[in-house]
Amino acid sequence: MNQLAERLSRISEPQTIKMAKLGRELKAQGIDIVDLSIGEPDFNTPEHIREAAKQAIDEGFTHYTPVAGIADLRAAIVHKLKRDNGLEYTPDQIVVTTGAKQALANAVLALVNPGDEVIIPTPYWVTYSEQVKLCQGEVVFVPTSIENNYKITPAQLQAAITPKTKLFMFSSPCNPTGSVYAKEELAALAKVFDKHPNVFIISDEIYEYINYVGAHESIAQFGDLKNRTIVINGLSKGFAMTGWRLGYLAAPLEIAKACDKIQSQFTSATCSITQKAAVTALTGSLSSAYEMVAEFKKRREYIHEALKEIPGLKVNDPEGAFYMFPDVSAFFNKSFEGDTIKNADDLCMYLLHRAHVSTVTGSAFEQPNCIRLSYATSMDKLQAGAARMKEWLGKLQ
Ligand code: PMP
């Protein structure tokens, strides 16, 4: 349809959403699919948070709120950033958004001019590059390797920076790899940024609580980087609240104001009821979040071992989030009954149609030798998924 704006041709629909759609279609045909493609916790939102939302409805808290969020929520976020991350912000530096995705979009729209370069280490979360392309920015991918647990090195960062670099975007814990940057690793990257004072950083910390190695670290904690870092976070993953649509950003005042202005012309504030629930989530007990993470940790141990037992898979060692990102290139050019695997896309389709296991191809995340598996599903499903994968991958000759 050639009436559509040209910008549509610059972006694509996320493969993650496409795989979920395909899996649903097969399920609707009565096929028993083990869905390991999902990017959301399989837990219910904790009860005290649900109760706060019900109370907000009953009290008639159902009207427009200030675009950047209600005062008590912004205060709760300021408190959270101090408590968990040692970061000092004022409430006017916080913008509450419709999911972390909108926080990212606000920040990219606020900073990226046509032709600006944006460095994204790969594999990366699919949305970053598409938002940059919508702003006519130039995406500069920096490939990382399984040997370095998919983390960018200071030397790679240094080599990628040019006079046109405006922004660096990354997530830790990372979707799709589960990698977590340690304090020393962030400190080493911070030293590179010190030499390039015009480069901004978007630090996506949405998986902060889903971390199996200890305290979460934010790059905004290093030196004066807070003055040019936009911290992105939200409640979707840590509090099992994906459908509520609550994200936020913390930024230097000028950038926060710009994000508020952009948001005021797109969506206004996020849902008033969700905001009340979020105050309770951020100021209340974190015990249900910890319980969920303890369960993810058990599943991670299981699936990590189970995948390591499948000949041909090269398995990474994720320290956070709920994804495994094995290298599957050993299966390329192998076949079974007329199905030939040329790449990770083919392998995903083979696993979906033959083993009835839904995963996501690594090419979606700019790492074409890998696939992503989510372990945000029950232990029974993980066991069935691992067994089916072992059986069907074993047939490829
Ligand atoms: N960042 C990353 C790395 C994610 O994986 C996701 C969700 N898949 C988001 C941001 C968006 O989260 P939200 O649901 O809060 O928009």
UniProtKB/TrEMBL annotation:
Q: Does the keyword Transferase apply?
A: yes
Name the Gene Ontology biological process terms.
amino acid metabolic process
Q: Which residues cross the membrane?
A: none
Sorted alphabetically, which PROSITE patterns does this protein's record hold? Answer: AA_TRANSFER_CLASS_1 (PS00105)
The cross-references to Gene3D superfamilies, in alphabetical order and at most eight, read: Aspartate Aminotransferase, domain 1, Type I PLP-dependent aspartate aminotransferase-like (Major domain)
Q: Ranges for the Aminotransferase class I/classII large domain?
A: 32-386
Family label: Belongs to the class-I pyridoxal-phosphate-dependent aminotransferase family.
Protein's name in the database? Aminotransferase
Q: From which source organism is this entry?
A: Chitinophaga dinghuensis
